[in-house]
């Protein structure tokens, strides 16, 4: 089947889950989750995978091992598509890409590239291009001061203080979510943010084993 958006029942499911995050609610509404929430996501990923890469839907269960909050279920559905991320919740649809949290070796390579020319200048240009599509590009776990070994007056000190770098876009829930417009939003984001992913892949790469 082709992707035609998420029906209103998908958001109703998450609205109910936020009010009653329990196994009883989950069991009673599991069929709705499978058909109205996961089903359309599978269809969307199947359509996007040939262009954007391998896809995976995350499990709906929260990791409670180190959390004081013991509610068992996530109140959103998340999926990976290539280097991108898609999220559906009662608030609507969101998409992200980049490197949320870099390993120490990745962070070292990132900072070296940001500090140098022309790699750092190229990243500034890439961020500007992505932001022209009304996509936010921001750091994750931003240091308050310059990282050790880098001058506080470096022209790209804002980027150097980042321990992760992501592009992010949200679309509030509305009737459009139940149409193929949802696919256009996600595909447009993935295309527009691809230059950032390409820069990170070239200059940062995967973490060392």
What would you note in describing this structure?
Strands 1-2-3-4-6-5 form a six-stranded antiparallel sheet. Helices cover 44% and strands 17% of the residues. The protein has one domain (8-63, 72-203): BirA Bifunctional Protein, domain 2, CATH 3.30.930. The protein has helices at 8-19, 23-28, 30-52, 104-115, 119-131, 157-160, 181-203, and strands at 55-57, 76-81, 84-89, 92-99, 136-139, 165-172. With 209 residues, the chain is an alpha+beta fold. The mean pLDDT is 96. It starts with 7 loop residues before the first helix and ends in a 6-residue tail after the last helix.
What would you say about this model in short?
This protein has helices spanning 8-19, 23-28, 30-52, 104-115, 119-131, 157-160, 181-203, and strands at 55-57, 76-81, 84-89, 92-99, 136-139, 165-172. It is an alpha+beta fold and 209 residues long.
SSE layout and pairings?
Layout: H1 8-19, H2 23-28, H3 30-52, E1 55-57, E2 76-81, E3 84-89, E4 92-99, H4 104-115, H5 119-131, E5 136-139, H6 157-160, E6 165-172, H7 181-203
Antiparallel strand pairs: 1-2, 2-3, 3-4, 4-6, 5-6
Helix pairs in contact: 1-3, 5-7
SS class: alpha+beta
Q: Main sheet? A: 6 strands, antiparallel
Provide the gyration radius in Å.
19 Å
* Overall helicity: 40-55%
Distance between the termini: 40 Å
Reading side by side through the largest sheet, how are the strands ordered?
A: 1-2-3-4-6-5
Measured by DSSP, the beta-strand proportion falls in 15-25%
Per DSSP E runs of 2 or more residues, the count of β-strands stands at 6
Query: What is the overall silhouette?
Result: globular
Please give the domain count: 1
Order of helices and strands: HHHEEEEHHEHEH
Helical segment count: 7
């Amino acid at each position: 089947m082709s992707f035609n958006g998420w029906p209103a029942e998908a958001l109703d499911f998450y609205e109910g889950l936020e009010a009653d995050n329990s196994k009883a609610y989950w069991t009673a509404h599991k069929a709705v989750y499978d058909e109205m929430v996961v089903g359309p996501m599978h269809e969307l990923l199947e359509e996007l995978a040939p262009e954007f890469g391998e896809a995976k839907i995350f499990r709906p269960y929260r990791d409670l091992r180190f959390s004081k909050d013991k509610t068992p279920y996530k109140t959103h559905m998340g999926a990976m598509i290539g280097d991108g991320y898609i999220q559906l919740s009662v608030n609507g649809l969101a998409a992200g890409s980049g490197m949320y949290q870099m390993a120490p070796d990745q962070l070292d390579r990132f900072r070296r590239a940001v500090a140098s020319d022309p790699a750092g200048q190229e990243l500034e240009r890439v961020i500007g291009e992505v932001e022209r599509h009304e996509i936010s590009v921001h750091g994750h776990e931003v240091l308050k001061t310059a990282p050790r070994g880098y001058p506080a007056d470096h022209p790209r000190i804002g980027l150097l203080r980042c321990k992760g770098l992501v592009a992010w876009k949200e679309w509030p829930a509305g009737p459009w979510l139940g149409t193929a417009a949802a696919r256009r939003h996600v595909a447009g984001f993935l295309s527009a943010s691809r230059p950032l992913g390409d820069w990170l892949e070239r200059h940062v790469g995967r973490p060392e084993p």
